[in-house]
Structure prediction request, 278 residues.
Amino acid sequence: MTQIPSLTLNNGISIPQLGFGTFQIEPQDTREAVRAALDTGYRHIDTAQMYGNEKEVGQAVRDSGLPRGEVFVTSKLNNGYHAYGDALAAFARTLDDLDLEYVDLFLVHWPLPAVGDYVETWKAMEEMHRSGRVRAIGVSNFQPSHLERLLRETATVPAVNQIEVHPYLTQDEVRAFGTDHGIATEAWSPIAQGKVLDDPVITAIAERVERSPAQVTLRWHLQRGDIVFPKSVTPARVEENFRLFDFELTPEDVAAITGLNRDERTGPDPDTFNWIPD
Ligand SMILES: NC(=O)c1ccc[n+]([C@@H]2O[C@H](COP(=O)([O-])OP(=O)(O)OC[C@H]3O[C@@H](n4cnc5c(N)ncnc54)[C@H](OP(=O)(O)O)[C@@H]3O)[C@@H](O)[C@H]2O)c1
Prediction:
């Protein structure tokens, strides 16, 4: 079976660099999708309270029969639970819903700069970590200014920052901040939900290396050192997105794809997104 490379996070724990994303997978489709991913060889699943499919993700992980230590499971604190006590209670619900003893990584999903106080939220995350029921804590969609505040006012450097990254949004500044402070970058929407797959620079490289545009784009992320978890409910794509380790891009290919940046988001801007679910 293909060996997925792992990265070591700043607290010493290991994370598979390729995983499987579950955003926009309906609960009734989640068990099958995650099972297909685990059967293919993925050993890292990314979910969130917001996705409404934690129960089914946990079920699929338990059904797989794989030792718990062999599957890396990430979830995220939903917007609306940023107050200290609310965050702890929401984390307890995640463990109940997943029906797992622990999660490998738990993230603050959005900073919500105009709503709550993410420093208070982060202190709750530190408490979760102390409880031993999460192996690493991190953030998602944090800009350098938000990270700077955490570094100044709290004792724990986030292990990861999960942000939107793809060839049209290369996120040089946030990624460099992470590198400087030992915060690993996780790239969400790594193929921009399909929007980059017709780009002529990517399709030309794909033709030359005899791989698909999605494989070329995912390989670009891996060679830049980021962690990725493409989502698909299509078994052939789940398989395709896993076959990234039998070819390599040249430094020129990597530079050409990075050169496609146009600071174009597919999702919300973290500086102005302050949405809280009902
Ligand atoms: N932290 C955050 O705020 C945040 C936000 C968004 C996403 N995420 C995480 O990042 C994961 C990935 O991002 P994403 O789901 O937004 O987008 P993505 O992985 O960039 O793209 C998924 C879309 O591309 C299609 N697709 C997948 N593989 C393909 C292939 N080989 N060829 C052609 N099309 C393909 C999928 O279709 P089918 O499913 O129909 O095959 C789906 O429509 C999420 O699932 C979630 O875990 C986190």
